[in-house]
TrEMBL record, chain A:
GO terms for molecular function: ATP binding; ATP hydrolysis activity. It holds the Pfam family ArsA_ATPase. The keyword NADP does not apply. Residues 6-303 form the ArsA/GET3 Anion-transporting ATPase-like domain. Coiled coil: none annotated. PANTHER family: ARSENICAL PUMP-DRIVING ATPASE ARSENITE-TRANSLOCATING ATPASE, ATPASE GET3. It comes from Prauserella shujinwangii. This is Arsenite efflux ATP-binding protein ArsA. NCBIfam families: GET3_arsA_TRC40. SUPFAM superfamilies: P-loop containing nucleoside triphosphate hydrolases (SSF52540). InterPro entries: ArsA/GET3_ATPase-like, ATPase_ArsA/GET3, P-loop_NTPase. Keywords: ATP-binding, Nucleotide-binding. Belongs to the arsA ATPase family.
From TrEMBL, chain B:
InterPro entries: CC_star_Cory, DUF7990. It comes from Prauserella shujinwangii. This is DNA helicase. Pfam families: DUF7990.
Length: 306, 90
């Protein structure tokens, strides 16, 4: 079942509004739906006309929403590890542990890894707490990197785990020879394996249960970026859902908008060719920005099940 | 000294010589191998402490306390009460 839906695209194409409308539609159809925004510049709360935090909050019947952040998740994890370390390591090394953790948390890539970690937690709840998860993802390049992370991380963690196993193997041989200590479970190795398993699980789950809906406005620059994103996502093992073309000028317009319409037709033709397998959804140019559950309703009906 | 005690002490001497010649050397080599493997792991996980960008620092965060504790145990074994500042160990 394709219960996890991502909405991705260039900034300003309306993906937050579309994700919110889609989520609202699913909730209206009786599904317990969670919509989350991962964009560091959150606007989901503005679209839903209600303040949001990192924890899901019910904003309409059967609809929950949250704005999740990698920084927040990284801070939480460092705090948890520091707390665990109090019981696991000698007291005199705790300041050093804290310094090393702070440095590691400042590493490039940490925010994205942490965001993916938070998202994994939510994906784990799909099927139990939620019937559907809608992710209003960050701008395209960021999203692609985020989702291809497991593929990059798994070999690295496997390397680390192998390295650890080699060290343990030599250690065990030595201990046996000296008639030394009995074999103990290795907390490091367990953690490395758990980490890798979690990433692999997410990757498989996304491959089986997730669709990415690329969102764009029918103009040349967003078109180029969308084609690149489609290639990168499919290359990363993700499936594309129907592509949503936002702000299509109705064909009864005159003047400037009519000329705009001609340009849009060319882009739409190219899109129809590229996405013939998955299909397109056209959303007309609307006079106002939509906010709140009431105004999003019409848009939700247009998107349907996607 | 009876023949029996003489034989026993000769056996012990031979055993000690064998130990020194072969086993001790092997043991030393093995110990070195253990240390080398552990150092490599430590370096991989704590890359950013060495000033190298670590692309998976977040994924290995929970190894950090154990590796610092290992480092601590090691410098104590080597007879040093403290090692570096709190940025390294203690």
């Amino acid at each position: 079942m394709l219960l996890i839906r991502f909405f991705g695209g260039k900034g300003g194409v309306g993906k937050t509004t579309l994700a919110a409308a889609y989520a609202l539609g699913r909730a209206g159809a009786g599904e317990r739906t969670l919509v989350v925004s991962t964009d560091p510049a959150h606007s989901l709360g503005d679209v839903l006309a209600t303040p949001l935090s990192g924890q899901p909050r019910e904003v309409a019947p059967l609809l929950w929403a949250a704005e999740i952040s990698g920084e927040e998740q990284a801070r939480r994890r460092v705090a948890e590890i520091t707390e665990d370390a109090r019981h696991a390591v000698p007291r005199e090394v705790l300041p050093a542990v804290e310094r090393h953790l702070a440095r590691a948390a400042d590493s490039p890539g940490t925010v994205e890894s942490a965001l993916l970690d938070r998202l994994t937690g939510l994906v784990e709840e799909v099927g139990a707490r939620w019937d559907r998860l809608v992710v209003d993802s960050a701008p395209t390049g960021h999203m692609v990197r985020l989702l291809s992370l497991p593929a990059l991380l798994t070999p690295w963690i496997e390397g680390l785990a192998r390295q650890r196993e080699r060290a343990r193997g030599a250690d065990r041989l030595l201990a046996g020879m000296l008639g030394g200590e009995r074999e103990r479970p290795d907390p490091l190795l367990d953690r490395l394996h758990a980490r890798r398993d979690r990433l692999e699980w997410l990757r498989a789950r996304l491959r089986d249960d997730a669709l990415v809906h690329l969102v764009l406005v029918p103009e040349q620059l967003p078109l180029a970026e969308t084609l690149r994103a489609a290639e990168a996502l499919e290359g990363g093992g993700l499936r594309l859902g129907r592509t949503v073309v936002n702000r299509v000028v109705p064909d009864d317009e005159t003047g400037v908008l009519a000329r705009r319409r001609e340009h849009q037709e060319r882009v739409l033709a190219e899109l129809a060719g590229r996405f013939s397998g998955t299909g397109l959804v056209r959303v007309p140019l609307l006079p106002d920005a939509l906010t709140g559950a009431g105004e999003l309703g019409e848009l939700a009906r247009r998107l349907g099940e996607l | 000294m009876s023949l029996r005690t003489r034989l026993a002490s000769a056996w012990r001497r031979a055993e000690a010589a064998h130990d020194q010649l072969f086993v001790a050397r092997w043991r030393q080599g093995l110990r070195r191998e253990v240390r080398r493997q552990e150092d490599t792991l430590r370096a991989l996980v704590m890359l950013e402490s060495l000033g190298v960008d670590n692309p998976v620092a977040y994924e290995t965060l929970d190894l950090v306390p154990y590796l610092v504790a290992d480092l601590h145990a090691w410098h104590r074994r080597m007879g040093q009460e403290s090692f570096g500042d709190p940025g390294v160990c203690c």
